[in-house]
Each structure stands twice: as C-alpha cells, then as structure tokens.
Amino acid sequence: MNKRLEILLVFASLLLSVPLIAMQFTDEVNWSLRDFSIMGVLLFGTGILIELILRKVRNLKFRFIIGGTVLLFAFLIWAELAVGIFGTPFAGS
After folding, report:
1. pLDDT of residue 18 exceeding 70
2. Single pTM value for the model
3. Per residue, what are the HEC states of the chain?
4. Left, alpha or beta for 92 (phi > 0: left; psi -120 to 50: alpha)?
C-alpha cells in the first residue's frame, strides 16, 4: 500500500472517531453501529475513489474536476444523511 492511500485511510479513521469520542462526553451524540458502518463506507469509499483518481488520471485539470465531483457527491450524501436537505427517505425521519 502506498503512503498516500495510508494517509487517506488514517484521515478517514480519524474523522470517524470524532463521533465515537463525542459519545463518551455527551448524550447529544448518539450513533449506532449502523451509523458508524454507513459513514465508514462513505469515508473509506471516498478516500479510495480519490486515490484511484490520483493514480489513473494524468491531466491535472481533470484530476481537480473529477476529484471535486467525488468530494461534492460525498458531501451531499453526508448532508442528506445528517439533516435531510433533499427530503429523501434516507434521511431517517
């Protein structure tokens, strides 16, 4: 495994540990195993897609466009799951 992929996966793990740590100090954060699983797939999947883009796409302009699109979609999925900005059934309520 290369160093860049390791950094992406460690960063995703650190982001995923934030709610776990917050759950130890407050009752306002209440994640279930399902929540951690879904966000783990989203974070690790995004990291792996970014790594794939960096490996396969040689043109710097296309790297930014494709990578930005992947990050935008990951952000929109996260926002929908967190607060339901689009009102789909995936928002949970």
Report:
1. yes
2. 0.85
3. CCHHHHHHHHHHHHHHHHHHHHHHHCCCCCCCHHHHHHHHHHHHHHHHHHHHHHHHCCCHHHHHHHHHHHHHHHHHHHHHHHHCCCCCHHHCC
4. left
Q: Which residue has the tokens 């495994």?
A: 1
Burial class (CB in 10 A: 0-12, 13-18, 19+), 28: exposed
Q: Please classify residue 8 by burial: count the beta carbons closer than 10 Å to its beta carbon, then call 0-12 exposed, 13-18 middle and 19+ buried.
A: buried
Residue 92 predicted with pLDDT over 70: no
**39 touches 67 (CB < 8 A):** no
Q: How far apart are CA 9 and CA 24, in angstroms?
A: 23
- Written as one letter, the residue type at 71 is L
